[in-house]
Amino acid sequence: MSADEFDPMIERLFARSPQMADATLFAAEVETKLHSSSRVRTAALTVAGLIGGIIAVKESMNLNLHLSDSQAPVAGRVIGQGLQAASVNVQSAVGSGLSQLGLSDLTFGSMGAMQMFWIAAGALIAVAAAGVVRLSQDV
Amino acid sequence: MPKALMDQHDVELAALAAAGGRREFGELVRRHGSAVRSLLRRMGAQGSEADDVAQDAFLQAFEKCAEFRGEGTFAAWVKRIAARLYLKRKAKDARYVAEIEPGEEDVAPARDQAGLVDLDEALKSLSETERLCVSLCHGAGLSHPEIAAAMNLPLGTVKSHVKRGLDKLRARLSPDAGQSGRSTHVG
Q1: Percentage above 70 pLDDT, chain B
Q2: Which of A14, A27, A31 sits opposite B138 (nearest CB)?
Q3: Number of domains making up chain A
């Protein structure tokens, strides 16, 4: 048999593979691994989202909005005072919630407000990405 | 009404798997799992090792499913992934033999119980490196330069391994094998 005849024959022989007896079991194992890796990923994203969310809420409460400046028009001043009051209420509520969770001493060293803002923004994006991933998996 | 999984083409299933469809990917594994596992065994992987590498290959294929464009067959695409994974694993354990090893003189015809040509049996007469090179070339569809790069061997050495491996296979698989001694017709 010449090489010209033999090479296609070898290709055909390699392409021909018997269906293995445990093919269904093998496929089930792969599917199980796919499910478990997906669960691990979802859990990791959820934890990252939660941590990011906590940091974001904590830091947004510490932002000084400067909304009650004495130079501002009366209407603006009223809105500013309202927002400030609401902010204080939410801050105290979140503060008490964090202290119940044992996170009242959560401090972030010497990081500036802008750095913390970007960290919080990143965390929020991570939460959104986690949501999209979860949605795409469900769909 | 959506088509049943079994009625769908590989390319359709791969597209659905790329969008996160694990059930659709499971159907692809059912269809092509045996082919990938067979290739790995032909490359020299033992049973459980072949299955481990095949599983890893399918998991990697799921992650990269969006890259499958349907230009070749899905099975060929996964086989290439599996072959490369196996080579990586092998590279950690041992160095490939760059020199040509002395050939075996066993030219008994490789036939299964039904008298049909038995490739798996014939592959056993090849050296480990010849077996890898021939399987990568004719089983996984890698070109000689791709094999040389993947195995970190000179191109000429890979070509020699493939040629020598094919000569041995021809001697064992040709219809007159065992009747007229070594039949190594090189065209």
Answers
A1: 79
A2: A14
A3: 1
pLDDT (tens digit per residue) in B108-148: 665 555 555 688 888 988 999 999 999 999 999 999 999 99
In A10-99, DSSP assigns E strands to none
ipTM: 0.74
- Other C-beta atoms within 10 Å of B163: how many? 16
Domains and CATH numbers, chain B: 1-94 (1.10.1740.10), 99-187 (1.10.10.10)
Distance from CA of B89 to the nearest CA of A (A): 19
Q: Sorting pLDDT into bands at 50, 70 and 90, what band is B92?
A: confident
Helix ranges restricted to H, B19-101? 22-43, 47-63, 74-93
What pLDDT, on the 0 to 100 scale, is given for residue A60?
Answer: 72
- B166:A3 CB<8 A: yes
Q: Residue B111: what are its φ and ψ, rounded to 5°?
A: -130, 145
